[in-house]
Amino acid sequence: MDNSFIITILSGLANILMVLLAAPFCQGVMRKVTAVIQSRKGPPIWQPYYDLLKLLGKEDIESGDSPVMQRVSVYMSLATVLAIACLVPMGFPAPMNGQGDVILLVYLLTLSGICTLLAGLAAGSTYSLLGISRQMMIMITLEPLFVAAIIIGAIHTHSFRLNTVLHGSVYMNEGFPWSGIIMLAVMLLSFQAFVERVPFDISEAETELMEGPLMEYSGPKLAIFKYASMVKLIIYSSLLVDMFVPWHGEIAAPLQWLLFWVKIFALALLITLVAATHARYRIDQAIRFFAMLLAAALVALVLAGFGH
To answer: What is the 3-state secondary structure (H, E, C) of 57-116?
Structure first.
């Protein structure tokens, strides 16, 4: 067997292991910081690990309209984000750079959202159906923002290769990177929605919909969905860092890896600060907000087409 193939597989497994271990820890840090901001003691940093283990140890009860779709959606949700982890550079080059491109990355990111829609549809309750209707409206207006950033990077680099586009490609033009600066602002303003945090966690609004699409889930299935959501935060944070703040490749490998994760946790703290200090938006407010960001993203696309 070719050594390069073995190295690719091992690198992909290393990325998966990193996100599986880091995701609950990042969630625990965010909970602790939120508690400090709100003048509370808060749970221990390790609490997300305990929560997942507790849910995994419970009985697996299926109460939805379509148990088969429930099983498929829950396992696909985690499998999708772990597949993305093999495609995203995390302090080192993308492990499977030659096995996929940014088009595959966009498909997988969209599929991870579709899994939540399928889960809510399979549950069949009023709360879950209302949750997926909100989720679908958000996805329709939100996903084009990330696609626009990918297209701008591809235009500047004339490539769809992962290591090329996911390495500050939005700034790679001859003059001042107007399109990259605009997309950086757009992605920062919409990032809370990508990771489904306040003020854009409208589809699961606990006070109204009691977790929306996941209303009918408990035990191991709920644990897997929660785990996939934690991993998704790491994935989107990695994509934002790789595309817009990629400058960690000129130092020694261990420091390069460490600096990457410092950026990830700094971004997680920013997410926590916004979530702890903002009220949840209504769905109509969120759609109008995303529409304005989409208009800005289209302006950036036009500028990128003219070499800016």
So the answer is: CCCCCCCCCCHHHHHHHHHHHHHHHHHHHCCCCCCCCCCCCCCCEHHHHHHHHHHHHHHH
Q: How confident is the model at residue 175 (pLDDT cuts 50, 70, 90)?
A: confident
Residue of 88, 103, 83 lying closest to 246 (CA atoms):
88
Closest alpha carbon to 243 in 146, 138, 169, 157: 169
How many Å apart are CA 208 and CA 229, to the nearest integer? Answer: 20
Decide: 210 and 3 in contact? Cβ < 8 Å: no
**What is the spatial distance between Cα 31 and Cα 29, in angstroms, rounded to a whole number?**
5
Q: State which H helix or E strand residue 128 sits in.
A: helix 126-157
Angle, CA 241 vertex, CA 236 and CA 243 arms, to 5°: 95
> From CA 147, how far away is CA 139, in angstroms rounded?
12
What does pTM read for this prediction? Answer: 0.92
Q: Report the range of poorest mean pLDDT among 33-42, 85-94, 158-167, 202-211.
A: 202-211
Amino acid occupying residue 252: A
* In contact, 248 and 260? CB cutoff 8 Å: yes
Which amino acid would we find at residue 301? L
Spatial contact of 24 and 47, defined as CB atoms under 8 Å apart:
no
